[in-house]
Amino acid sequence: MKFFIDTAEVDEIKKLLDSGLIDGVTTNPSLIMKSGRDFIEVIKEISALLPKNPISAEVTANDSKGMIAQGSRLADISSNIVIKLPLTMDGLEACHYFYNQKIQTNVTLCFSSSQALLAAKAGATYVSPFVGRLDDIGIDGMEIIQSIVQIFANYASLTTEVLVASIRNPMHVITAAEMGADVSTIPPSVIHQLVKHPLTDKGLAAFDQDWAKTGQTL
Ligand code: E4P
């Protein structure tokens, strides 16, 4: 499963660049707002840091014409930009336009299997079901991942990748991997949680102590 990092904080991406864990980046208008930075500058910096990896940049227009105009400007920034579009009928129209232009898309704000199927039929490169926000309203977000993965597996013509979004904890990532989702987009804090285990820390401390007792150097 690919790991995208879900952030507009350039420093958080830099910290993980050498780990080999990051296959792409997703941003959204709320993450840009939290960064306090200029959207276009942030997208330029991120796409330069990871020039061969997909970087999702979201349109803000609500009509297909506006989405196509904004998405075309974003796509001009770099060939690795993926245009993020909302899962509305206008978003699907814009998605199909970009599909015909051979420009990659990520159809976002997906909350049901039927929406995901439409995104795939419109030619989306990725569809982003939001698991955390479904959990927040008492619906098991991971259940729709299972359903979407199964539907896409039934039809070889549906090549859209399932990009699990709105991830809140390591179990979301592990369950997504068990279900065979293509990608998880993960906040930096959850990526750091994934590596932690108390027995690793305890074991390392014991090895450090015992190695010191040998008096040897390496
Ligand atoms: C990423 O593409 C989504 O915009 C993001 O995962 C949404 O996460 P949130 O529900 O925590 O805001």
Keywords, please?
alpha/beta, TIM Barrel, eight-stranded parallel beta barrel, 11 helices, 53% helix, binds erythose-4-phosphate
SSE topology sketch:
Blueprint: E1 2-6, H1 10-16, E2 24-26, H2 29-35, H3 39-49, E3 55-58, H4 64-77, E4 81-86, H5 89-100, E5 105-110, H6 113-121, E6 126-129, H7 131-136, H8 141-154, E7 161-164, H9 170-179, E8 183-186, H10 188-195, H11 198-214
Parallel strand pairs: 1-2, 1-8, 2-3, 3-4, 4-5, 5-6, 6-7, 7-8
Bound molecules: erythose-4-phosphate.
Erythose-4-phosphate (E4P) binds next to helix 7.
Shape: globular
Counting helices, strands and paired strands, the structural category is alpha/beta
Strand content: 15-25%
Low-confidence stretches: none
Query: Under the CATH scheme, which architecture would be assigned?
Result: Alpha-Beta Barrel
Can you identify the CATH class? Answer: Alpha Beta
Strands side by side in the biggest sheet: 1-2-3-4-5-6-7-8
Q: SSE order, as H and E?
A: EHEHHEHEHEHEHHEHEHH
What is the mean pLDDT?
98
Terminal CA distance reads 36 Å
Write out the distinct hetero groups bound to the structure. Answer: erythose-4-phosphate
Number of domains: 1
Helix content: 40-55%
Q: How does the major sheet shape up?
A: 8 strands, parallel, barrel
